[in-house]
Design goal:
Layout (H helix, E strand, L loop, with lengths): L2 E4 L4 H13 L5 E3 L17 H16 L3 E10 L19 H11 L7 E11 L5 E12 L15 E3 L4 E2 H12 L1 H13 L4
Parallel strand pairs: 1-2, 1-3
Antiparallel strand pairs: 3-4, 4-5, 5-6, 6-7
Helix pairs in contact: 1-4, 4-5
C-alpha cells in the first residue's frame, strides 16, 4: 500500500483527513510525525495559508522523502478584518479554545455583520517533488453563543446559516463533506491521488 505523509501533530486534523479519504475511497497508509517518532515542528512564519502549508510540507518531505500533504487553515472573521486568519491557532495564546470562542461571541454580541469563513490551503509534494496547492473555503457566520460538542477549535461558534447550527452541532457527517478541509482534500483527490 502506498504511503502518504500527513504533516501534522493535530490528532483531530489527522482523524478528519483520514475519515475524508476513507469516504472517498483513497486507499493509502497515512503516516504522521508521531509514527516516525519525530517531535520537532517547523516554524510557521509565512504570511499566508499557502506559505505556511508549503513550509510544513517541505520540512517533512525533506526529512522522510514521502509524498506529503500539509494544510494550513483558520477562521477569518469580517468584524476582525479577516483575523485571526493564519494566526487562528495562536490567537489569544493565553486562552484555550472554549475561552477564545467565548471571547469572540462576547466581543461581537451587538454586531450585525457576523460573516466569517473557514479557509484551508493544502500543499501536496508528490513523488516527483512537484508542488501542488488546493484551497477550500466554507462560508458561515459567528453564532450568538457557542453550541455543540462534535467539533474542535472554533467549530462551536461557526454557524452554518442554512442549517441554523454550528459545525460542532452538525459534526462529522457535515464536516467530512462540506468543511473547508473536505473541499480542499476533494480537489486534491480528483487531481493528485495518482501522483503519489
Amino acid at each position: 500500500m502506498k504511503k502518504l505523509f500527513i504533516a501534522s501533530n493535530n490528532a483531530h486534523k489527522i482523524s478528519e483527513i483520514s475519515d475524508i479519504l476513507k469516504d472517498n475511497v483513497v486507499d493509502v497508509k497515512l503516516v504522521c510525525p508521531k509514527d516516525m517518532d519525530h517531535h520537532e515542528e517547523p516554524v510557521e512564519d509565512g504570511n499566508s495559508f499557502k506559505e505556511n502549508a508549503y513550509i510544513k510540507a517541505k520540512y517533512y518531505h525533506d526529512l522522510f522523502h514521502l509524498p506529503t500533504i500539509a494544510d494550513d487553515s483558520g477562521i477569518c472573521i469580517d468584524y476582525f478584518d479577516g483575523k485571526p486568519g493564519i494566526h487562528s491557532a495562536r490567537f489569544l495564546p493565553e486562552m484555550d479554545y472554549p475561552q477564545k470562542c467565548r471571547y469572540i461571541v462576547d466581543v461581537m454580541k451587538d454586531v450585525k455583520n457576523r460573516g466569517a469563513r473557514f479557509v484551508d490551503c493544502l500543499c501536496f509534494i508528490d513523488k516527483d517533488e512537484q508542488v501542488h496547492y488546493y484551497e477550500g473555503v466554507n462560508e458561515g457566520e459567528i453564532s450568538k453563543e457557542p453550541a455543540g460538542v462534535k467539533g474542535f477549535g472554533y467549530d462551536p461558534i461557526f454557524l452554518i446559516p442554512e442549517y441554523n447550527k454550528t459545525e460542532a452541532e452538525l459534526g462529522e457527517e457535515y464536516k467530512n463533506v462540506y468543511s473547508h478541509r473536505a473541499k480542499a482534500l476533494k480537489k486534491w483527490i480528483i487531481d493528485a491521488k495518482e501522483k503519489f
